[in-house]
């Protein structure tokens, strides 16, 4: 089923409409009810194959801003990797990443005592 996007020339807002075959309804802006709509190119997604995702993750340029000594940096990196893998690790993972992002507060409480 074709979905078309239009920009209202009156208010500038984007409108999306599902147009069924053989029907050409009179369209109006969903925001301001204006009748002057211009059809625009819709955005599209091109899914990557698993091989392309793995190659992108192996690219060293993706690791340029990662600081393994900074919990916030590692949390951002782990979220990015999870998103690239297309995996949903659940709420526990999200909570763990958020707590990593908080940084030094937890680092102090988790420090290992001196054994001397």
3D structure, described in words:
With 116 residues, the chain is of the alpha+beta class. It has two domains: 3-40; 50-108, no CATH class. 36% of the residues lie in helices and 13% in strands. The chain is built from four helices and three strands, in the order E-E-E-H-H-H-H. The chain has helices at residues 50-58, 71-85, 91-102, 104-109; strands spanning 3-8, 14-18, 37-40. Strands 2-1-3 form a three-stranded antiparallel beta sheet, with no helix packed on it. Helix 2 runs antiparallel to helix 3. It is elongated.
The largest beta-sheet arranges its strands as 2-1-3
Order of helices and strands: EEEHHHH
Which word captures the global form?
Answer: elongated
How many domains is the backbone divided into? 2
What separation lies between the terminal Cα atoms?
Answer: 71 Å
User: What structural class do helix, strand and pairing data support?
Assistant: alpha+beta
Main beta sheet strand tally, sense and closure: 3 strands, antiparallel
Give the topology.
Elements: E1 3-8, E2 14-18, E3 37-40, H1 50-58, H2 71-85, H3 91-102, H4 104-109
Antiparallel strand pairs: 1-2, 1-3
Helix pairs in contact: 2-3
